[in-house]
Records
---
Amino acid sequence: MQHKDHYAALGLPSSASLADIKKAFRQQASVHHPDRNDSPQAPARFRAVQEAYEVLSDPDRRKAYDDNRQRNLLDNPLETARAIWLDYFGRLV
């Protein structure tokens, strides 16, 4: 199962403030907006940035996401580490 890391989508640590989240969203959305970026991956990355912002900017949704993220890390640390590794290095290609 593919886990989405909303913090990684915005390039933020999990300790980021709401102001940090808003700033990162504006920056990432500008970079990946399909009207400004001709890359074939731009629409998918733009959607990922939008989804990350929608979750992390809402206090209730962020708490639920953080709780689930913590559970996943503790329940299956090897699979979680693998998913994080692949997500991180997949974006570098």
---
Amino acid sequence: MHLTLHADYSLRVLLYLATRTGRPVSTQEMADAYGISKHHLVRVVQTLAGQGVVDARAGRSGGVVLARAPADIQVGSVLRAAEPDFHLVECFDRERNACPIAPACGLKGVLDEAREAFLAVLDRYTLADLLRRSRPNLQDYFLPTSEP
């Protein structure tokens, strides 16, 4: 299984914001801190804002902040919102499934069970749990930025 960059960046944005409490953070600052595309991060922030996980305000005094406490942000929910689908194999996609053995194959059920187990594990963790599992100096690992 491979998560999309959108899902990966969603979790990275949340970790960054959780280490920068007390002030709005620009998407440019986060892009610089990770060495990734600002344009992609804008879409990620839109997804997270739509989910009610972050607040994003435009303008000179704007920026992005967590909309909820880290303990109230569930990792599994974030990934479900950020991933376009969790189609592990072709037969998971009913519209594009061209596998000739799909009606008789037992693989889909096993993979579906594995996918659900994967998401169940992620549902047990919050952003606060990720912070507790990280090194205390996590913020020191971000690339230097021009922002404070």
---
Amino acid sequence: MDEHRLGLKPIVGKMWAERGKAPTVAVEHRYAWLYVYAFVCPQTGESQYWLVPSVDTLAFQAVLDRFARDTGAGQCREIVLVLVGAGWHCGPQLICPEGLHLVFLPPYSQELQPAERLWSLTDVPLKNRHFPTLDALKGLLAAHCRWLEDQCERARSLTFFHWWPRIIN
């Protein structure tokens, strides 16, 4: 599980251009954000994405509760979530739902976080694009995240590290 900030400040990246002509991208620096919370099972590639207006303990608690309910976590199903040690992941106000177990990575080791690799996929439709409002960005991003949830093999190829523990049914 990981979070990613996206907003009206554009993501500028490489693009195709006609030979001899410099590519142009409309850029207007504005500072309005939303956050993508992503959950992925590296072995199967199953993923869930949540668009949330903030990143804090309250928002994380709401997403965690919904994730536990949607995945059937509880007495009959145990899920281990690997997280970075952000303050909102381990604050005293956070109540971990039954069936979820939080495991924290060592500090400064986000390269070990499988969900970190999903951001290259979420950014694809946003690169070199200008959005007039956060709602316009959210509409496109929501549709793209719904599509990504069906791309299990693509997510698996990015997140299933050779050293990742195998799930035994």
